Automatic annotation (TrEMBL):
Name of the molecule in the record: Serine hydrolase domain-containing protein
InterPro entries: AmpC-like (IPR050491), Beta-lactam-related (IPR001466), Beta-lactam/transpept-like (IPR012338)
Record keywords, A-Z: Hydrolase, Signal
Gene Ontology MF term list: hydrolase activity
N-terminal signal peptide: 1-19
One Pfam family linked to the record: Beta-lactamase
Length: 410
């Protein structure tokens, strides 16, 4: 289920059978085509496995020298099978830029406007608890400034998708309308649409519903027709009600939000993707995420006007009644429509996509011109002493932050 734990800042979706103890944890290995080195990235992968309890983590770097792939740990703790470059995995909220791209393409075609209200396409759906679909626009949905409550933070639903209860509910299916209603039964995050940023998966479910209303086709079909096939993505798709992952894939693991160092680890590979759908239900590969994110950064999927919309960034927080600023998402980030930027500790800023799901974290980010990019994924989500988001950040800093320097690629 999607949620906004402080440590993940709203990136999470959900995903169990008990996992056997790890058999081996190999050190980072590299598959090099043209690009050499990346010693610091290797170290970050090794540390995530050796010290952070990550079963397996990979990173693929692409720059002018070529492509470099490195891995540490395993894809399957029972068999000790190593991570591989072409594995498919659940990408959580990295689904959002796919949904946003489809919406922006429809805007470019004149079939909708980002200034359209939700009521224009889904009349009467968004109401109650201070919500008014006549004042919330498509743009508000895409850049998380709608104020609509994130359905994953609903107390009743989250109780079913954390801890042992998850074992009973992992195959529960939801319609988009059900997810929206869960969000709407909670108070708004702030009063006036556009007056703040609070990450809301509910907004992206509504965006997906609008895509289907405008086109008369499923969101999965539109993503395939407009993005997957044109870019030649070979391992990327939005599942329907299937609970497994097609093709080669790592096992996905989770402590189900337990934060103790001795928390039990569960195999969470099979799960219902309907819980995330347009907000976080997709499957992809590191290579596909590279190609897709590179296309977003270079502007090859959108006309100039819509490209500017995608990268019109907002600060990720709200102004409190006393005038002070409160971060509501990842500190140091700004958000566009499905894409975001992230300032690293050395001052370097990277741009791209990212997401979490119960069972893993996946990010693809790079310089604004896409000349240097890193895609990384781990097959566990952890929220205690070793936080998955911190370990992801360590990989980017290993590549984009020269040792001892505050200069970086911006």
């Amino acid at each position: 289920m999607t949620t906004s734990l402080p440590s993940t800042a709203g990136l999470l979706i959900t995903a169990v059978a008990l996992a056997a103890p790890a058999t081996t944890t190999p050190a980072a290995s590299a598959s090099v085509t043209d690009a050499p080195g990346h010693v610091q990235v290797r170290k970050a992968l090794d540390q995530a496995v050796a010290d952070g309890g990550v079963p397996g983590m990979v990173a693929e770097v692409r720059d002018r020298r070529g492509r470099w792939f490195g891995s540490a740990g395993v894809a399957d703790t029972r068999t000790g099978r190593e991570r591989r470059p072409h594995e498919r995995f659940r990408i959580g909220s990295a689904t959002k830029p796919f949904t946003a791209t489809v919406v922006l393409q429809l805007a470019a075609e004149g079939r909708l406007s980002l200034d359209d209200t939700v009521d224009r396409w889904l009349p009467g759906l968004v109401e109650g608890n201070g919500n008014d679909g006549g004042t919330i626009t498509v743009r508000h949905l895409l850049n998380h400034t709608s104020g609509i409550f994130n359905y994953g933070n609903d107390e009743k639903e989250f109780a079913k998708f954390s801890g042992p209860a998850w074992l009973e509910h992992r195959y529960d299916t939801y319609t988009p309308g059900q997810l929206v209603r869960i969000g709407l039964r909670n108070p708004r995050s702030f009063e006036v649409p556009g007056d703040g940023f609070v990450y809301s998966n509910t907004g992206y479910i509504l965006a997906g519903m609008i895509v289907e209303k405008v086109t008369g086709r499923t969101l999965a079909d539109e993503i395939s027709r407009r993005i997957v096939r044109p870019l030649g993505l070979t391992g990327t798709y939005l599942p329907a009600e299937e609970t497994g992952i097609r093709g080669p894939h790592p096992r996905h693991y989770s402590t189900l939000f337990a934060t103790g160092t001795d928390a039990e680890v569960h195999d969470v590979t099979d799960q219902s993707a309907t819980v995330g759908w347009a907000a976080g239900g997709m499957v992809s590969t590191v290579g596909d995420l590279h190609r897709f994110t590179g296309a977003l950064l270079r502007g090859t999927l959108l006309p100039p006007a819509q490209q500017r919309e995608m990268f019109t960034m907002v600060r990720t927080g709200i102004t409190m009644p006393d005038g002070t600023w409160k971060d509501t998402w990842i500190p140091g980030s700004t958000y566009g429509t499905g894409v975001f930027s992230w300032e690293l500790s050395c001052g370097a800023r990277v741009w791209g996509v990212g997401g979490a799901i119960t069972g893993g974290f996946s990010f693809a980010m790079g310089t604004r011109d896409a000349e240097r990019m890193v895609a990384t994924t781990m097959n566990i989500d952890t929220y205690g002493r070793y936080n998955s988001l911190d370990m992801v950040k360590a990989v980017f800093q290993a590549e984009f932050c020269p040792s001892g320097s505050r200069a970086g690629s911006r």
